[in-house]
Amino acid sequence: MKTYYVYILKCKDELFYVGMTNNLERRINEHHEGLNRECFTYKRRPLALVFQQGFNEVEQAIYFEKKIKKWSSQKKAALIDGNNNMLQILSECRNATHFKYKE
């Protein structure tokens, strides 16, 4: 059974890169070596692997990767830090029509 990994790299410019692979070591090495000049991380090296999570099903990994790619940097940082309280706060809807804000 294969394991699929969703990972987050922190770039030298403090931006995060989210990716997915079935071979984490190989993929991280590819990022470090800069094999693809068009890759988001190419000009942002050096990179640090700051988060990884394994999945048994590729569909689960794809879903999670797409989900966290849309997150703010603050929310990604909370995930990386394991700060579930902050992650929950940052996930709350804050618009005026949200039920928490109705009288």
From TrEMBL:
GIY-YIG domain span: 2-78
Pfam families referenced in this protein's UniProt entry, alphabetically: GIY-YIG
InterPro entries attached to this UniProt entry: GIY-YIG_endonuc (IPR000305), GIY-YIG_endonuc_sf (IPR035901), UPF0213_domain (IPR050190)
SMART domains (alphabetical): GIYc
Leader peptide range in chain numbering: none
Family: Belongs to the UPF0213 family.
Descriptive protein name: GIY-YIG nuclease family protein
